[in-house]
Amino acid sequence: MKIETYIAQLLYRYQCVTVPGFGAFLTEIQSAQLNESTNSFFPPKKMISFNSHLKNNDGLLANHISHAESTTYGFAVNAIAAEVQSWKKTLEENGVISLKNIGEIRLNSESNIIFTPNDQTNFLTTSFGLSPFVSPLIKKENFEQKLEQLEKENVSLYENEEGRSSRTFLRYAAIFVLGLGITGSIGYPLYQNQIAAQTLVVEGVVQKKVQTKIQEATFFIENPLPAVTLAVDSAKVEAPAEKVMPYHIMAGAFRSEQNARKAYNQLIKDGYQARMLGENKHGLFPVLYGSYATMNEAQKAQKEIQKGENPDAWILVENL
User: Fold this and answer.
1) Of 10, 42, 148, 295, whose CA is between 20 and 30 Å from 126?
2) pLDDT at position 191, please?
3) In angstroms, what is the C-alpha Rg of the chain?
4) DSSP conformation letters of the chain
5) Phi/psi-derived region of residue 152, left when phi > 0, alpha when psi is between -120 and 50, beta in every other case
6) What's residue 177's pLDDT?
7) Residues 302, 272: contact at Cβ < 8 Å?
8) pLDDT of 58-108, one tens digit each?
9) Among 48, 180, 168, 53, which residue's Cα sits nearest to residue 116?
10) Going by C-beta distance under 8 Å and a sequence separation of 6 or more, which residues neighbour residue 134?
């Protein structure tokens, strides 16, 4: 089974796609680029990277394959394992494997994996239909040369009064054409500013969609989590009485409520402000490390947890 096809499909929708026992393909949004020296424009895109240390099965790829192939989850897991073994064997024998629309994976002299992404594929859906282009530079000198040529031609063609009147009209027409060229040279920086503003709007929409997809990819939770609030003493602080904390760091999701309870108790013992949620429609019991008011706070806490506790900890964003 060629699982790279299914990996590519998931990269359009999710930030991380893990291949159990092999590694994870990660995406990062790159803003639109404008090269002023060459007048070249490049639309926003998703940059693909590879992390060989993230090998745990999060269920995303296997579930996608089982639905696409109309087979069981167990069969999909076995198919992935067989493909991974084939990849490793090819790397040992040839030193390189090519994954269609994704990129190439090579082994260096120290047997470390080196990933080279395919720069012809843009996995950012909001950039669909956009492609790089080069805008021609408008030069003032071209219109000045045309003006001189028109004046020379008019001298030879018109000798009477009517000819002089026509020459005057053509001179003003040429000056008008030159004015259009100068306006273009002034308007080009304004066009650049407009491109930059539109890029910021695109990035905001994309980041919001990415955060929503992270929630779906990690734990398959259909309904939004209940908001976590903190009571504030109104006698001491003149602020709203409740603080919404929609950013949650997930410790895991367990099929056994007893195992979820053990994980929750251990997190409390370790000093985390943990929470345990009720059973969802998939029969899983999610457990949280904690909840935060802003994405910056959540990302800071996530980095600490990934370094010392759980490298696979994810941020779950509640719909506001």
Assistant:
1) 295
2) 52
3) 30
4) --THHHHHHHHTT-SEEEETTTEEEEEEEE--EEETTTTEEE--EEEEEEETT-----SHHHHHHHHHHT--HHHHHHHHHHHHHHHHHHHHHHSEEEETTTEEEEE-TTS-EEEEE-TT----GGGTT---EEPPPP-HHHHHHHHHHHHHHHHHH--SHHHHHHHHHHHHHHHHHHHHHHHHHHHHHHHHHHHHHHHHHHHHHHHHHHHHHHHHHHH---SPPPPB--B--TTT--S-SB--B-EEEEEEEES-HHHHHHHHHHHHHTT---EEPPP-TTS-EEEEEEEESSHHHHHHHHHHHHHHT-TT-EEEEPP-
5) alpha
6) 45
7) no
8) 899 999 999 999 999 999 999 999 999 999 999 888 989 999 889 999 988
9) 48
10) 38, 39, 40, 41
Using CA of residue 298, residue 304, residue 306, residue 309, what is the dihedral sign?
negative
Alpha carbon distance 64, 216 (integer Å): 12
Phi, psi of 28 (to 5 degrees): -140, 135
* Alpha carbon distance 35, 41 (integer Å): 6
306: which residues sit within 8 A by CB, 6+ positions away?
312, 313
pLDDT at 259 over 50: yes
Which tokens in the block code for residue 72? 């069981």
Q: What is the pLDDT of residue 252?
A: 84
Tokens of 46: 């998703």
pLDDT at 219 over 50: no
Mean pLDDT across the chain: 75
Q: What is the distance between the alpha carbons of residues 232 and 227, in angstroms, rounded to a whole number?
A: 16
54 token code pair: 């993230």
Q: Which of 17, 9, 22, 99 is nearest to 61 (CA)?
A: 17
